[in-house]
Structures are given as C-alpha cells and as structure tokens.
Amino acid sequence: MSSYIQHVRHEKGDRAHVVIASGGNAAIAAACAARGVGLKCSTFMPVSTPDTVVAYVKRQGADVYLEGSEYFYALQLAERFLKDDPEG
Q1: Does position 48 have pLDDT exceeding 90, yes or no?
Q2: What is the distance between the alpha carbons of residues 29 and 6, in angstroms, rounded to a whole number?
C-alpha cells in the first residue's frame, strides 16, 4: 500500500486524494501511508467495522465514511464519491 501511495503522489502531486473502500485493514494502511506522504485520504467501510479501527483511521487524519452492512455498499459509495473528486 505504501509503495502505491508514494507512486500516486509522484504521479499526481501533493494534491492527490487517496480514496479506498475497505473492511478495515486496508483503510488503516492507506490512512497511515497517505499521512506519511502528506496526502488527503478518505476511507469507506461498512458500518460493522470495529470502533477501534474507525478511531485509529480517524487519528491518522483520514475521513471516514461508514456505509451499509457489507463491503459492497462501502465500495459503491466510494465509487460515487470518486466521480465527484478530480483528485481521487
């Protein structure tokens, strides 16, 4: 995840926006990596994601959106979000 996010920053610059749908673990990785290179990060997870994961992702500075009972619904919301975000 870290290598990919570093690549995104190199390709898109410091205005790139990391957007990820996740069950939790990938959101943690993306939030930490984005913070490390100074990029904005938005994570989309199911409402069943443990509170500890949500809190940790928020502490890394990422925006957290909780949607639906399963990953599929979080992914759909992330895809809609990306349509309106030219930096995503």
Answers
A1: yes
A2: 12
pLDDT value at position 16?
92
**Residue 50 and residue 54: Cα distance in Å, rounded?**
7
- CATH no. for residue 23? 3.40.50.1100
- Strand order in 40-45's β-sheet? 17-21, 40-45, 63-66
What is the rounded distance in angstroms from the CA atom of residue 13 to the CA atom of residue 3? 15
Q: Is residue 18 part of a domain?
A: yes
Residue 88 above 70 pLDDT? no
Of 56, 68, 69, the C-alpha closest to 26 is 56
Q: Considering its fold, how many domains does the chain have in total? A: 1
The secondary structure of residue 13, as a DSSP letter, is -
Identify any residues that bridge with 51 across adjacent strands, giving them in sequence order: none
CB-based burial label for 78 (10 Å; 0-12, 13-18, 19+): buried
